[in-house]
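This entry is listed as follows:

___
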Amino acid sequence: MTHRFDTAAPGDRTTPRILTEAHELVGAAARAFARDEYARTLLAECEYRLREPLRVALAGSIKAGKSTLLNALVGQAVAPTDATECTRVVTWYRDGATPTVTAHAADGSRANVIVRRGSGAHGLTFDLNGLRWDARGPREVDHLEVGWPSAALSQTTIIDTPGTSSLSREVSLRTARLLTPTDTGVDARAGGAPISVPGADAVVYLLRRLDATDVSFLEQIGAGAGGAGPLGVIGVVSRADEIGSGRIDALHSARDVAARFAGELERTGLCQAVIPVAGLLAFAASTLRQPEFAAFEALSTVPAEDLGIALLSADRFARADIALPVAPELRAQLVDRFGLFGIRMATMLIRLGVRDSLSLAAELADRSGIEELRSVLEVQFGQRAEELKAHSALSTLDRILMAYPGTEADRLLPRVRARLADVHGFTELRLLGRLRTDELPLPPAVLADLHRILGGEGVAAHLRLGLPAEANSNSLRAKAFDAVRTWRARAGHPLADQSTATACRAAARSAEGILAELPR
């Protein structure tokens, strides 16, 4: 099963122009700072960032399930999920020809990391003891970089971050430094603090409960350095199966919790969506084995009442004195891999008619919430990869120019600011993030149309216009013309308040963009 965050297809509405302009601006700045090594290094990072895949960071409190969700999204056991030292450092997962794990120190030194493979849910461990650095001796690991052959990672670099609520302040700060740049506001040449720039283009933030720490960190992401942080933030109610104590209706309870979290976050627009996901079940579904399917088949023959009693706890289910048609060792493995919720769900699905392991894997993945999350990530991040990468690079360039005033590069600042302010894709992303918080006085059907035309359901022209995929260019053109007229009229209505008029003008511009790209 192949999983990926796809970027928009060739016929879809993309924005290569903003990437070209970002490349040009970064190149012009590099020439202006040809004699400053530190500025050149930062600008080289900007240039590289525009060429590499989208960067998506997984963030959240300790034990939120970030590594498990990462494995589920990739569809392979690439991240350790046990509480080892490697979970205390930022780890970058990139596509690679062969599996490799490299430790990086702050001074640029590198050391190979030994990978140990275990069993069950904790399949991998990165051994950071006894790293072989160069002759200068041991040093502290700044971050890890994992190269892994993966279709998902070829499209998206995923960054696993330490818990935001770690007892160690330094561990929590590692995540803050990656996602929330601090504005030094000083001349870098005068001995000021180093320029802090965001390392991710978008964020998936995992929530187990919505407390002050989560809200504060999400506010930092949104407001850091005057909006220089990541544009896209998706919330995930993680370990959703545990909310209902592993009951068969656990995800229904999790959806209620997600709705409550979303409602509370609506006041500030901190997330563009909040989705419940049972990460453990999602990963187990993507790696379901035939012996496990056979075990579920055998368990499905047990009377529901007897199986329910056996599943009162994980320890009870794996006990040797409990009479079940599956060996205790295999039962313990099922609990470790699927959890009680997954076992209940798998046996129920088989009773309802699922007859093979592929069908069961697909059904479990769908019920875990991972497919809904993938869909949202595709619409919010994958189809807007160019805009998100350009925003990160231009925001970084803006900060570099502000830290080096009084040079010939100053002439670039108005162009950079204009691009950040005027690129319509950035406007759409910001509006989608605020749409539900602004309480626009529009009927629900009109709000749904607004969400769609801004790209909330996908950036392809037919999706924005609410037409079927097979709609021809004449139908698309007629619908787009109608959308331009409709949204312009709403924007100019004498009773429209400023927020409504602004949103309607943006919708009209989105429709105009569709017209500009349709073949004549």
About this structure: The longest helix spans residues 328-351. Confidence is low (pLDDT under 50) at residues 1-15.
